[in-house]
């Protein structure tokens, strides 16, 4: 068994890696050796033959490369997890993956897992995500941005995705932790728009919602290369199901306590948990299109929300794909303002070719055209709280009404 150890200054993060794969070992060494803030310990060998000899004192993260199809390896990992307890977190690297492997890893409370081939960026992000000390994992209160369609095909998903990207990159000192949650469990498209695999398995947690904790949530999160966390379930277009509200509210409560910003892409159908989501929102956007029926339905939805939520967050209407024409009989901005009333917020300009290309490529709008007019308009509306007076007032009102979803 070969072992390599670097000397670690007091302030360094110590990453312990165990692998029997020379190629993966070389990748790990080249990935982590570039950072002076990381002390790397590499142990060459199988987990079954090395588990009892791994020195874990002072470790920040443990990365274990195992053969998930080998019963001895999985048993060794289980013993290691029992020995470790709550700290340090373990990231498992597997060559194969299926539902039974995922279930066992979740039961062992593995912090995260990746399937080979693993890119250096994926590994670094996984380690950084789980390497938070217990003191650093205190509960926080997220800012919630909710997008609700007034009509079908209004472009809610595009606006939700772009809003999440804006919030992600809004931090003054780097990226803000941001999660995009696709609550359309039947026809959701967030994962498709970003070209990532949806990993939320509601059938797994529905029998026992109390099992859903931070570690299980990490397993069911999808990660976009930008750093955006996405919660989305695989599409089930032929299954019309209404999940137990306890499952959904438990999920939302957990997400809202572990991110700076959360963006909800809502379905048009009103479910038993919809009121709870809307009540927990800091900013609530009703999205419609520039048609007379679209404006009517937006107004009706606003009235219904106001009646149901009372003093809850105030719905604001966004008209998507607006085209301003000087000499035309089409709807003008003044017509929209008159029809919607005080709930009207803004019009988002139309750029169908840009949006279509972004969707086809699975990238944010700015990756196709930086500084495009859709992003610029959204940026005026989606400003981090504290930098915009109107947004700040809305956030304060939302805070007063914030509920614990898990208890609603």
Question: What would you say this structure looks like, in words?
Answer:
By secondary structure, the protein is α/β, with parallel strands linked by helices. The protein has 2 domains: 134 residues, Response regulator (Rossmann fold, 3-Layer(aba) Sandwich); 265 residues, Rossmann fold. It is built from 17 helices and 14 strands. It has an 8-stranded mixed sheet with strand order 9-10-8-11-7-12-13-14, sandwiched between helices. Helix 12 links the parallel strand 12 and strand 13. The longest helix has 18 residues. The protein is elongated. It starts with a strand and ends in a 7-residue tail after the last helix.
Based on the model shown, name its key terms:
2 domains; 408 residues; single chain; 6-stranded mixed beta sheet; disordered C terminus; disordered N terminus; alpha/beta; Rossmann fold; 8-stranded mixed beta sheet; 17 helices
Q: From the helix content, strand content and strand pairing, which structural class follows?
A: alpha/beta
Shape, per Cα inertia axes: elongated
Biggest sheet details: 8 strands, mixed
What's the domain count?
Answer: 2
CATH topology of the largest domain: Rossmann fold
CATH superfamily of the largest domain: P-loop containing nucleotide triphosphate hydrolases
Q: Main sheet: which strands, in order across?
A: 9-10-8-11-7-12-13-14
Total count of helical runs of at least 4 residues: 17
Instruction: Please give the share of residues in helix.
Output: 25-40%
Distance between the termini: 54 Å
Rg measurement, Å:
23 Å
> How many strand elements?
14
Question: Mind telling me which CATH architecture of the largest domain this is?
Answer: 3-Layer(aba) Sandwich
- The parts where pLDDT drops under 50 for at least 5 residues are 1-11, 133-139, 385-408
- Tell me, what is the CATH class of the largest domain? Alpha Beta
Nearest-integer average pLDDT = 78
Strand content bin: 15-25%
């Amino acid at each position: 068994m070969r072992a390599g150890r670097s000397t670690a200054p007091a302030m360094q993060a110590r990453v312990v890696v165990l692998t029997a794969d020379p190629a993966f070992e070389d990748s790990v060494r080249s990935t982590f050796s570039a950072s002076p803030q990381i002390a790397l310990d590499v142990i060459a060998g199988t987990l079954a033959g090395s588990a009892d000899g791994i020195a874990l004192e002072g470790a920040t993260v443990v990365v274990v490369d195992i053969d998930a199809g080998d019963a001895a390896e999985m048993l060794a990992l289980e013993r290691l997890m029992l020995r470790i307890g709550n700290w340090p977190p373990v990231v498992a690297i597997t060559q194969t993956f299926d539902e039974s492997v995922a279930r066992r890893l979740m039961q062992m409370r593995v912090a995260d897992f990746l399937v080979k081939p693993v890119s250096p960026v994926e590994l670094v992000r996984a380690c950084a995500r789980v390497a938070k000390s217990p003191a650093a994992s205190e509960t926080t209160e997220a800012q919630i941005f909710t997008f609700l369609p007034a009509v079908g095909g209004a472009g809610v998903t595009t606006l939700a995705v772009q809003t999440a990207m804006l919030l992600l990159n809004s931090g003054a000192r780097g990226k803000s932790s941001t999660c995009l949650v696709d609550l359309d469990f039947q026809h959701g498209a967030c994962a498709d728009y970003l070209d990532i695999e949806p990993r939320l398995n509601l059938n797994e947690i529905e029998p026992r919602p109390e099992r859903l904790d931070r570690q299980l949530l990490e397993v069911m999160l999808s990660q976009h290369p930008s750093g955006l966390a996405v919660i989305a379930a695989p599409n089930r277009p032929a299954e019309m199901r209404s999940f137990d509200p306890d499952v959904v509210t438990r999920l939302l409560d957990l997400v809202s306590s572990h991110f700076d910003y959360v963006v909800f892409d809502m379905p048009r159908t009103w479910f038993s948990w919809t009121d709870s989501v809307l009540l927990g929102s800091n900013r609530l956007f009703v999205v419609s299109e520039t048609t007379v029926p679209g404006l009517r339905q937006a107004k009706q939805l606003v009235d219904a929300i106001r009646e149901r939520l009372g003093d809850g967050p105030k719905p604001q209407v966004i008209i998507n794909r607006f085209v301003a024409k000087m000499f035309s009989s089409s709807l003008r901005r003044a017509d929209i303002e008159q029809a919607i009333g005080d709930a009207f917020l803004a019009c988002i300009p139309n750029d169908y070719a840009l949006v279509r290309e972004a969707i086809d490529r699975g990238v944010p709008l700015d990756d196709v055209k930086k500084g495009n007019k859709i992003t610029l308009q959204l940026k005026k509306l989606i400003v981090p709280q504290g930098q915009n007076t109107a947004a700040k007032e809305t956030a304060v009102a939302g805070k007063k009404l914030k509920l614990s979803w898990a208890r609603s």
